[in-house]
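Researcher: Structure for this, please.
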Amino acid sequence: MKLRLQGCCNEKGSEERKNAFQLLPNKGNYYHNKRVFASDYGEIITVRRPSNPCDAHDFVPCPSCLGYFPREELRKHVVHSCIGRDLKSLRPTSFEIRMQSDIVSEIYSQNLKHVPKLIQTMRQDSLTMVIKHDDLIRQLGENFLTKLTTVDDTRKRHYVGQKMRESARLLVQFRKTTKSDASMDDLLHHQHNDSVVEAVHRTAGDPDMTTEDSDGCKHPSVALKLGHDLRKLAMIKEGIGIKKENKLQRKEAVKFLKLMDRDWKNLVSSPALSTISARRLGKVEELPDSEDISNFSSFLAKEIETISTLLSTKKV
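Model: Predicted structure, token format:
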């Protein structure tokens, strides 16, 4: 009854007290709905009763207040009226809201179904060993595979394997940077933001951290991809914290995401995009030699003359 106690501690009639007591039934309804979906029997409890009959699977939980809303209305609720989040904070994207909601509703089960099979087909090296022993990286792969309509598609499975290997490569660089045996859960901490940025640059092939004397990272697209993957991993960590009622884990993920929103563009994305743009502009496009153009022109003229002769002969 932490929410109830928290509500009682707030001043009577205050907005905080009112919100705390509103969140309490949402939490109880959330666990009730989980049991209904798990047993596939019963009725779910939503924040607002639908006016027309509809499928229970059309309703999803809000990752902040745990109330169940129609899937198409969830973003509007989270952005404008959710009492479980600070409405003045940075607005989450539709993708982030959907992913967090899926994690809270346990669409992504901790019982990994597809990743173990995929790992068996991967090259068994040090990176694969990192993947095998890191829960968040394996959960990231499971999330990707769950969203694929054809899990047995070789090309898509290869793509997911590469995404997990990229994350594992980043974790290895982070361990070298911090001289520790950290996990991905440890990496996604706001206090390690500088070390994470350094590890991303090194993973992308920029040991000089894009200083003035540096020509930019060798693989700037890798830095951009790692940014997206880190955001997904942090959202997975936040969702797991919500499900396990681990406030510390959830706060760590939220703070890490806030730092990414504030600093990532300047520290990683902009330098990487600048490198890509500079290389595109500086790319040398070789033109054909004048002799080759002359030979090709002569060849075309002869072919035209030959074909014209054949056509005129056939007409006669």
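Researcher: Any notable elements?
Model: The CA atoms of residues 107 and 146 lie 9 Å apart. Confidence is low (pLDDT under 50) at residues 1-5, 210-214.
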